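The data are quoted verbatim for reference:
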Amino acid sequence: MLKTKNLLLLVLSLVLIGGGGCIFSPPKDPPCEGPNCNQPVPRPWPDTPDRLMANFQAVYEDMDFADFAQMLHSQYVTILQESTYNQFPDVGTTLDLEEELRIHERMFSKQDVTDPLGNLVPGVQSIDFQTFQRVGAWSLSPSNDPIPDAWFAQYDAVFLFDRGAGHTILKVQGSIKFYVVARDSTVNGVTKPYYRMRGQKDETDD
């Protein structure tokens, strides 16, 4: 097993720096057949921050890009570690919504990629959360926070990215700070909170 600081380093180099042309397009899904066609099982309504984070784990382990895109706020931002943007200065210090969606659509496709030198990089076939535990209570971020006026909590995390038989498993572990916000939404005549992810701050181990 290969212990790596962050799978993001690999994805950043291929998707944001290496150029979009380096990725193979995922194959189209076969025609849907049967009585349950096009009727995905809905995830639990994210009416609390904890329910949103449970959905986040499920979406990652299912590698479900459509649900991942739906749970992100329009102003979503990922705050990168200094070691990450020092290695990839062209990327900058943050990733916005568009960049995160590009990364995850390709990562969740399970397709192999080629690096800028033409070398094959095996696609991620499955993602397993060995640990995903909130540390402390949810708190409201102050106005001078990089992501202000949002609820945030620290999570201890250990993620395993399996790239298939014959390839090393990538391991990401450490702390991640997640930020969430809610809006009111009416469902069957009942108004309830609807939480989405406003951002995260990478504090995983080097």
